[in-house]
Design a protein that fits this description.
The chain is α/β, with parallel strands linked by helices and 259 residues long. It has ten helices and six strands, in the order αβαααβαβαβαααββα. Helix 6 links the parallel strand 3 and strand 4.
Length: 259
């Protein structure tokens, strides 16, 4: 029975996906920037009876297809949360293989020549070898014509805001601005100009996989007016049809932009 059902899905899903794609509205109502919380790799691995590293590899293998789906509907910016600052406290036996899997995934994305990669996060907390590979990928893809892809590694929303404030204070210190002068003129745009994603549009849509319905510190500042879509599938099982459903759900909402 299970084999029969899988066979039916293989036949029907491509037609359903094509129908979803055809029915998407004009690009003016689609998101420019999509943030994706790639959640559920470890739980997926447990569910299939494999180790954690296998789950992370399966999740890494699903990144390039996702970016292809984003290209398909005209997304301009994608932010992928691959590793949080909290995850840096995991045992070395789990963290070291994960960092290598992430580095390999980023190398692979760079090798496609399709997208501009931009690492974001507290890179100073990462091993030097990991940072070197992330920055090499950024440099190698700087002139690519495709989407901008933020690779969030060692990322935490509170840490980003704290780093932005530190950067702002340091900048004004070099100018000789007093704290009183800065306090009198400081506004939200000053902080935005020092975020990891400075110069980019804020995310219109944030997708989280694995059934969890919380932000978890992802793009705390930037997502103030974002729409959210929560998907039950673990990240390695996230399919094109799931992505298209998320885009459709976004397009059907009446955006109030925080009002």
């Amino acid at each position: 029975m299970a084999d029969w059902r899988r066979g039916v899905r293989r036949v029907l899903y491509p037609a359903y996906e094509a129908r979803l794609l055809r029915k998407l509205p004009e690009s003016s109502t689609l998101p420019r920037h999509v943030g994706v919380m790639l959640d559920g790799n470890r739980r997926w691995a447990r569910a299939v009876g494999r180790d954690t590293a296998h789950g992370h590899r399966a999740g890494a293998a699903n990144i390039e297809p996702l970016l292809g789906w984003c290209d398909e509907v005209g997304i301009e910016v994608v932010t992928l949360w691959l590793l949080s600052t909290d995850n840096l406290n995991r045992p070395a036996s789990e963290l070291e293989p994960l960092l290598e899997i992430i580095a390999e995934a980023v190398d692979s994305l760079a090798d496609t020549g399709k997208w501009r990669l931009h690492p974001v996060g507290a890179l100073d907390l990462l091993p030097a070898a990991t940072v070197e590979r992330l920055k090499a990928a950024e440099e190698a893809t700087r002139d690519n014509p495709g989407m901008l892809v933020n690779i969030a590694v060692g990322y935490g929303g509170r840490r980003e805001i704290a780093d932005a404030v530190r950067s702002l204070l340091a900048e004004h210190a070099t100018r000789g601005t007093s704290l009183e002068e800065l306090a009198a003129t400081l506004d939200v745009e000053h902080i935005s100009e020092h975020l990891y994603t400075k110069g980019q549009p804020d995310p219109d849509l944030v997708i989280r996989t694995s059934g969890e319905q919380r932000l978890g510190g992802f793009l705390l500042w930037q997502s103030a007016k974002s729409e959210f879509y929560f998907c039950e599938a673990y990240w390695p099982d996230f399919r094109r049809v799931d992505f298209l459903r998320a885009i459709r759900a976004y397009a059907q909402r009446e955006r109030r932009h925080g009002i």
